[in-house]
Write a structure and sequence with these properties.
Layout (H helix, E strand, L loop, with lengths): L1 E4 L14 H4 L26 E5 L2 H5 L1 H10 L14 E5 L13 E7 L7 E6 L7 E7 L2 H10 L1 H22 L3 H11 L11 E5 L2 E5 L6 E10 L8 H15 L8 E16 L2 E13 L4 E11 L4 E10 L6 H11 L23 H6 L34
Parallel strand pairs: 1-5, 2-3, 2-4, 4-6
Antiparallel strand pairs: 5-6, 7-8, 8-9, 9-13, 10-11, 11-12, 12-13
């Protein structure tokens, strides 16, 4: 699969007239990469997790276009009710005007006989900032649909991580300094969480911060426990450890009530965070003896300096309302957790020859894939641990 950067193209006779409006700033010429050029770029428009698809109307309505729409509407994992990963909008090339070119996330579909093979290309901050653009080229609709299906996870991850990066940048500018200082004091770690998480509680190797809201309630916890062996990073061990920590520290409204995990909903996978191994878990929590519950997502990471596992988790309580954006906003905070000694400390006994963490390689099994690019899964940066299947797949125990 060919993947390359999109360059800013000067309009010329080589540009196809019917797609000139859509691609004059996105594709065709092989000039310098304009990704990251934000000095004079206007602010991008749209809400987080909005995606605009620029595609011919007929293509959009046929099977190839529906395949792309289905991928972008993929259900976000770990939520109690179905919610799409993105809010998808569509515009034909003729209507892709200066206003729409400023949308924060854009997919451009280019099906034409001049293409030699299906290809994915990416660019950033071309017409606005912050902005992420994905160009999907193909010689025909059949190969276009196949390209979309073969790269469905990469397509979703590309825009999810773009939104995560934007939230992390916002957190860097404005985060809860008190929470940061307490986590540093208790765990010798740093983390950035939104300022709205103003209520706090401390326990033995445990810290909680939350909004304490009746609805749209966001919560963030950090806890640690000794690292023993590879069995630490299994679904059953994770759930057992989580339940014991939450029972002791997150009580319900009355005696005998406490937070627990709906084990049947939990999915896990190894990922890379700041270039190092992390064990991601998603699922649903509930309160034993009560009707409260909601989604959570967590990262478990190894602090080799202290021989322990440090877990950062975000969970939400928001009955009767959409939860995707609430979870995603706090999920970005998970990526800001820095262990003692920085990223190098979490690499166990060093990095592999390709720069990927050795610890992550030890836990890699057939069918589980790791992104060695510092947790930034972009097309072109995928490492296949088991041969023949690119991408970042989900481990299901």
């Amino acid at each position: 699969m060919k993947r390359r950067d999109i360059s800013l193209c000067v309009e010329s006779a080589a540009c196809r007239l019917c797609l000139a409006v859509a691609f004059v700033l996105l594709a065709g010429c092989q000039g310098g990469n304009r990704s990251g050029d934000t000095l004079f770029a206007p602010a991008s428009s749209g809400h987080p997790f909005d995606v605009l698809v620029v595609a011919d109307e007929d293509l959009w309505q046929r099977r190839a276009g529906r395949a792309l729409a289905d991928v972008l509407a993929t259900r976000m994992p770990g939520l109690p009710q179905p919610e799409p990963s993105f809010r998808v909008m569509h515009a034909s090339p003729a209507h892709f005007d200066a206003t729409l070119k400023r949308v924060r996330n854009i997919v451009v579909a280019d099906v034409r006989s001049g293409c030699t093979q299906a290809a994915l290309s990416t660019a950033g901050n071309v017409n606005a900032s912050p902005q992420s653009i994905l160009l999907i080229e193909a010689p025909d609709e059949t190969s276009f649909g196949q390209c979309v299906q073969d790269n469905r996870q990469q397509i979703v991850d590309y825009f999810v991580r773009a939104e995560m990066d934007r939230q992390v940048q916002a957190l860097e500018r404005d985060h809860n300094a008190y929470v940061e200082s307490r986590v540093r004091k208790l765990f010798d770690c740093t983390v950035w969480v939104p300022c709205g998480l103003s209520a706090c509680k401390e326990g033995t190797s445990f810290f909680w911060a939350g909004t304490n809201a009746a609805t749209r309630d966001q919560n963030f916890v950090v806890y640690s426990y000794p690292y023993t062996d590879r069995a630490t990073f299994t679904k059953d061990n994770f759930v057992d450890k989580r339940d014991s920590v939450m029972k002791a520290n997150i009580p319900g409204a009355r005696r005998g009530m406490y937070m627990t995990t709906d084990r049947s909903t939990v999915t896990t996978r190894p990922i890379a965070v700041q270039g190092c191994f992390a064990y991601e878990a998603r699922g649903l929590w509930r309160v034993e003896g009560d009707c409260m519950g909601g989604p959570f997502v967590s990262h478990a990471r190894v602090d080799t300096l202290h021989g322990r596992v440090v877990v950062a988790e975000a969970f939400v309580y928001s009955p009767g309302t959409p939860k995707r954006d609430l979870v995603r906003q706090l999920e970005a905070s998970l990526y800001t957790l820095r262990l003692p000694g920085g990223a190098a400390a979490a690499r166990d006994d060093g990095a592999g020859a390709d720069g990927s963490p050795v610890l992550a390689q030890r836990f890699a099994i057939a069918g589980v894939y790791l992104c060695p690019s510092g947790g930034r899964p972009l097309p072109g940066s995928w490492q296949t641990v088991a041969p023949g299947r690119p991408g970042l797949a989900q481990e299901k125990d």
